[in-house]
Amino acid sequence: MSRFVIEGGHPLHGTFRPMGNKNAALPMLAACVLTDQPVHLHNVPRILDVENLLALLADLGVDVSRDGHAVTLCAAALRKTDLDPDLCCRVRGSILLAGPLAARHGTATLYPPGGDVIGRRRLDTHFAGLAALGIAMTRRGDAFRLRRAAVPPRAAAPEILLDEASVTATENILMAAVLVPGTHVILNAACEPHVQDLAALLVAMGASIDGIGTNRLVVTGVPALHGATRRIGPDYIEIGSLLAAAAATRGTVTVTDAPHPLPSIPALVVARLLDRLGVALASRPDALHLPPAQSLRVRPDLGGSIPKIEDGIWPAIPSDLLSVAIVLATQARGDILFFEKLFESRMYFVDRLLEMGARVVACDPHRVLVSGPSRLRAKHMTSPDIRAGMALIIAALAADGTSIIDNADMVDRGYEAIDARLRRLGAHIVREPS
Questions:
Q1: How many domains are there within the chain?
Q2: I want to staple 356 with a disulfide (CB 3.0 to 4.6 A). Which of 361, 376, 426, 428 is the partner?
Q3: What is the pLDDT of residue 247?
Q4: For the chain, how long is the longest CA-to-CA vector?
């Protein structure tokens, strides 16, 4: 266990390169069990969630080779389809092995996945969708046992209507469907960039998928998949987090993935969110630049009404960006309401902001009213989850004095070497053993 020690009041300056998208890396790693040929992935972030999933794959018998941010996986010698319960509880991405293992190998046994405690994170949508593909689930104690029917459903274009646009459920069902005979239509599918990255990898492996980037995916099963090579796209949550940190500290940074272009729609989503808080970005195909002297003034609704920032299904503002946006709002002039619709525990970290001197009203578990700007004071805190942990880092960077944030390992699950990369931008942050 470790902790961050942060001296606030130092603006961020320089160039920042985002790592690969965490939420794309996990399902793309899981997809390796769909074939006995090597899958080569580039730009894989070196984060704790990835390391835990790689350990889970290696335990199954997947040959894992890593060279920096490149990973090669080969599941030709898979020993078992029963997942290790201790490894399952370390990473929520363990659930992503349910569909591909059952679809290709006929059975799978997994255990409740880990992940952030930000509210109820149901698995019903996963198992209902897999059942429509002929993969039945039975539960014995903590174990979920999946078995693929000997003769899978062959109805003409059966439609699978998801009861929620769940990202991981969409990915799980998609990975299973690519090997199930017949054509299946997944309705109300999630269409986030990481779902698109996974779909593009599956197509490169020989899958037949139409409608990528929409909420209607048409999948025609194929007998087998082959190996492929794919680069994981940049993490737009990390991009938004760093731009929020720079704006909150009155700094100026350039986020670039050169020589690769930044995905235009994720960049637009980040820019739209920051614009609401008075942050104007300059953009070019390979970079987003935060110029100096930002107004940091909340843009009100027509008639001067208090505006609202709320999350939603893509391309609405993602839930993972709300925590950092709340911290940035404490430094912006004006009132703004944040509405978190998905997770009833995500907003609990605002109690730490109150202790730091922020003017925040927690209306209920889903809504927070922020009135800024506030002068934040240093505090000794604990990181409760990945995104709240990053938000508290931003608050500490903007605060007067030296803050301590325990449970730094929680942030390591989603942000690679964030302390070292922030130091290169001028932040006064060090890591110490707890």
A1: 2
A2: 376
A3: 98
A4: 65
Domain containing 358 — which CATH number? 3.65.10.10
Q: Identify the active-site residue in 36, 67, 116, 257.
A: 116
Cα of first residue to Cα of last residue in the chain, in angstroms, is 6
Residue 55: per-residue pLDDT: 96
pLDDT one-digit tens code per residue, 162-209: 999 999 999 999 999 999 999 999 999 999 999 999 999 999 999 999
Cα dist. 92→84, 111, 199, 212, 411 in Å? Answer: 13, 10, 20, 24, 15
Specify the DSSP element, H or E, that contains 120: none
Tell me the three state secondary structure of residue 246.
Answer: helix
User: Is residue 235 annotated as a catalytic residue, yes or no?
Assistant: no
- Which residue's entry shows tokens 């986020």? 255
Q: Is the pLDDT of residue 118 over 80?
A: no
412 phi and psi, to 5 degrees?
-60, -20
Residue 177 CB coordination number (10 Å): 29
> Looking at the structure, do residues 382 and 334 belong to the same domain, yes or no?
yes
Q: For the purposes of burial, counting CB atoms within 10 Å of the CB of 259, is it exposed (0-12), middle (13-18) or buried (19 or more)?
A: exposed
- Render 389-416 in DSSP notation, one character per residue: HHHHHHHHHHSBSEEEEE-HHHHHTTST
